[in-house]
């Protein structure tokens, strides 16, 4: 149940309707409260304040009607600007970037402000009664409606500025990079040397019994706590076969359990319930997904249609910074034990070499022949190499640098350009020799 809630919460956070919907409900409650307050105040008290609306019923209706109609016009303008920004971002940076725009709280608050102001004015407007009826003029409510209109005007100015900033390449890359670093802090919180040593374990003998998926899609979340509890109660060992970010089809293997005779249908249902499978990858437990967003921007920038190597080099710098941070973190322990110390869950994570390959393979393949990007790749790899604390991680960085250099030698024929590339590579080789 936990992963299902988190799965839908991630979808709600990425929607345009949730926060504006809450603000609209708040406007309904606020309109009721201010109208109730107006029923208690007297006209003399209103006149004594000076800044509270003190006009007649016709004037109050005109003010609220004008504010309400203008809010709907502005809402249409905001919606149009948002669609233009989304279309431009999708075309230049890729469709997966749209999730970042939709998750932007500022955009949701702006839309919610105009909708809430419109709804508030509309609800207050219906309470105004003329002199031929029982006269009622909600002075405080009308004043608050005018105040909301002024706030909305400021919000509109901010939104125009925010849209102009948010579609800039450097801003988009910086936001994705910040999300990537938060994901590293969340999923790899322990720095090398600060964690307690963990006893190694071995997989149980035999093949075990597989737990088969009954749906298809991408693994978004895994409730490790639920798996551990299920394994303890059934007295089995469960190995996770599909990690967050993996695609599974119906009938694909999700996990294995030992001993096979204890992996009954009830346990299989509990294991499947610990997986949240959806139509797309999410960054909740998948650092590689956020990393690949930067890769996609870089690859698109290197395409002949866009040909923007500066954006690609910015992505390379951000990827190097994230990999340098990741190199200093301990990997989560693969063997999880229960309360009595018995092995219960085996969860093999991604190695550092996988992250290095995911970050630079596609960029390296698409930048062959571009000397500036190739040099920046080698410089970024050299900086990552300075941050690693394990020999295997250094070997992964050096191997990637060797692939970059091999591609450069195959694609670059001008001696001067190739010499400059080779100088960067030789510096990395020298650092490898000194590190050995």
Helix content: 55-70%
Q: What share of the residues does DSSP label as strand, in percent? A: 5-15%
Q: What is the C-alpha radius of gyration, as a whole number of Å? A: 29 Å
User: What class, by secondary structure content?
Assistant: alpha+beta
Low-confidence stretches: none
Extended strand count: 8
Give the mean pLDDT: 84
Largest sheet: 5 strands, mixed
Lateral strand order in the biggest sheet: 1-5-3-8-7
What pattern of helices and strands is seen along the backbone?
Answer: HHHHHHHHEEHEEEHEHHEEHHHH
Q: Shape from CA axes? A: flat
Kindly, what is the distance between the CA atoms of the first and last residues, rounded to a whole number of angstroms? 49 Å
What does this protein look like?
The mean pLDDT is 84. The relative contact order is 0.09. It is flat and about 90 Å long. It is an alpha+beta fold and 436 residues long. Helix 8 (169-187) packs antiparallel against helix 11, helix 11 (287-301) packs parallel to helix 13 and helix 13 packs parallel to helix 15. The chain is built from 16 helices and 8 strands. The longest helix has 37 residues, at 57-93. Among the domains are: 2-167, no CATH class; 287-330 and 350-435. The protein has a 5-stranded mixed sheet, covered by helices on one side. Strands 4-2-6 form a 3-stranded antiparallel sheet.
